[in-house]
Amino acid sequence: MKSTLRLAVILCVLWVLLSGHFTPLLLFLGVASVALVLWMDWRMDEIDHEQFYLPVTRDLFTHVVKLSWLVILSNIDVCLRIYGIRKASPTFMEIPLPFENPLSKVIFANAITLTPGTVSMVINDNTLLIHSVSKEGAEDLKNGAMVNIIPRIKDQYVKTVPVPASTPSYPPKKIKEKDVSL
User: Fold this and answer.
1) What does the pLDDT look like over 56-70, one tens digit per residue?
2) Tag placement on the chain: N or C end, fewer CB within 10 Å?
3) Overall number of domains in the chain
4) φ/ψ (deg, to 5) at 13
5) 144 and 92 in a common domain
């Protein structure tokens, strides 16, 4: 309940700061959006029972600044490839995942996807399949260009809650199909 209230307050403040308008329609849409996000958050907790606590530390702020800089550089690189100044050479490549923590792996994959010109495709135990618009970009990722910007996350911040026996199975059981042939 405490985390839901904290999330609601953060989302409401963020909505007001980003919107800057106080008309009844926009305030209603903001409340509706916050309610929808809170409902989705509750449903996700009901389904997967995992909680990740990402502490707000200097590492997190450093990650955001460095990732923002990489996004700017990648934007410039993609623009140069679009205008033909640099050659595009689309490449699929498997790169090693240097992290043991599943949350660190997900943050790493998301950081790669956030940078223009690269997409994380499949995450395995120790490798990540990526697509890049250039072979140079894929090689940079393979050589660890983005590893240093990922915040250090300790295992104590990842908590898996056991599923109670009374919880319904997900996904729901398939409903019997009826023969509807004519």
Assistant:
1) 778 888 889 999 999
2) C
3) 2
4) -65, -45
5) yes
